[in-house]
Design a protein that fits this description.
- The protein is of the alpha+beta class.
- It folds into three domains: 13-118 and 130-159, no CATH class; 170-349, Cupredoxins -  blue copper proteins (Immunoglobulin-like, Sandwich), CATH 2.60.40; 361-505, OmpA-like domain (60s Ribosomal Protein L30, Chain: A), CATH 3.30.1330.60.
- It has eleven helices and 14 strands.
- It has helices at residues 2-31, 33-65, 83-114, 131-159, 276-283, 333-341, 346-350, 366-385, 411-427, 445-465, 490-496; strands at 170-177, 180-185, 220-222, 228-231, 236-242, 247-251, 256-260, 266-270, 309-313, 326-331, 394-396, 432-438, 473-477, 498-505.
- It has a five-stranded mixed beta sheet, with no helix packed on it. Strands 4-10-9-6-7 form a five-stranded mixed beta sheet, with helices on one face. It has a four-stranded mixed beta sheet with strand order 11-14-12-13.
- Helix 1 (2-31) packs antiparallel against helix 2 and helix 8 (366-385) runs parallel beside helix 9 (411-427).
Amino acid sequence: MTYLIAFAIIFLLAVVVIQIGKLTDLANRIRGEEAAETSSNNTQGIALVIFMVVFLVACVWSALYYKDVMLGYGPLTSASKHGFELDHIFNVTLFFTGIVFIITHILLFWYAYKYRKTGASNKAMFFAHDTKLEMIWTVVPAVVMTYLVANGLIAWNNIFPTLGPDDKHIEIEATGYQFAWDIRYPGNDGKLGNKDFRLIDPANNSLGIDWHDEASVDDIVLGGSDKIVLPKDTTIKVRITAKDVLHNFYLPHFRVKMDAVPGLPTSFIFSPVKTTKEFREQLSKFPEWQMPADPADPNGPKKWEVFEYELACAELCGKGHYSMRRIVEVVEPDEFKTWLAGQKPFYVTNIRGKESDPWAGKKLFPFEIKARAAELKSDLANYLSDTTGTASRNIQLKHVFYATGSADLNSDLSKYELDHLVELMAKYPTMRVELAGHTDNVGDAASNLTLSNSRATKVFEYLVAKGVSAARMSAKGYGQEQPLESNDSPEGRQANRRTELRIISK
């Protein structure tokens, strides 16, 4: 209905304009061409002056009215260090172009009135040239443009500094694809591992991360719906890539905008200066942000209370373009460290223990050893302190390894897990345990039973050699009779080949 009314109004206005034109033509014929032309020129000249005044007043009014909803003004000042410089350059450019805009329009409409034809004696004057005027309109714009370009170059160098190896910063990677972003953080080593598009596996390695590069194994990858967390007052370098079509990495509140080009990595450097909480407090001081976030719920949270920084794709990349929006949260550096420490490396959750793992049975990484020690300690403490009877008494010794098809214990890799267990046995001197060995269903059941018993015995002997009393432990093999997962897949068989700690008494 709204569109119908709008169309009707436009149609009626067109009819009115046409009729006015016909009436004007008729009046010209009645009064005479010259008198009519003079009258028309006067009318049009006055109308143009009125339009000029109304137009410029409307421009100023709209700028003031919408100021608080534009980036860089009112509540939407920059949330990044370099953003203030960008906003300043924008304002300076707007100042000079605004002067040109106003002067040009004043002259355009005023001259149309001043030099209108008012009689037969009016003749235009012709100036071949005016050296003074030509110098003014050449030199002044040249000086202004030089000033703007110089400021822009200085800002560019400040925004895109060259980071040396000693410059403290965090480098993350944003990979765009239809229709999401994958965000990769470095782990404890502070380095992002290598990638190779030839290693891309949609199921297990969508980014093509090279797992043979040790810098890759502690990298953290956030999926398409996870919140992006960034530390305040920290230099952040974003490595930006794309897997399919052109995307655009856009953080409007941080004044960050860079294309994500397939096959051509780009980057951007910025430093957040306001946490999400601080920006919300800034918004809370403005009346327009006091409105309910949901108009249907007037008593619900206000707009400023639910504000979130966001990552958007500023390039129309397909039908699902809208779904590339991500929430960004800026926190204090200590809070960021805590959050990062709680994230599990992509390698641990997706690659470790699978056939594609290049480090299986070869190496344990420091972050794994540390995390596993904390996990083992927590699992044991949870059971010993449990009063509900819901905690499991079976604790899998995840980092105990043997030679393939043999009971020979790989002491170089297993010592970390077993030495942690020695410490825990000393911490809980009354605890008695059973060391349970398990296999998959490959091979003869009797042989598997023997193998599992031998492996459990090897662990028993290692712990006794480290000072744990043999009276507090027993070793038993269960063969293939107690699988955790199906033996129909390599991953399932891997999970079933295990050694467990079973708590007999506290």
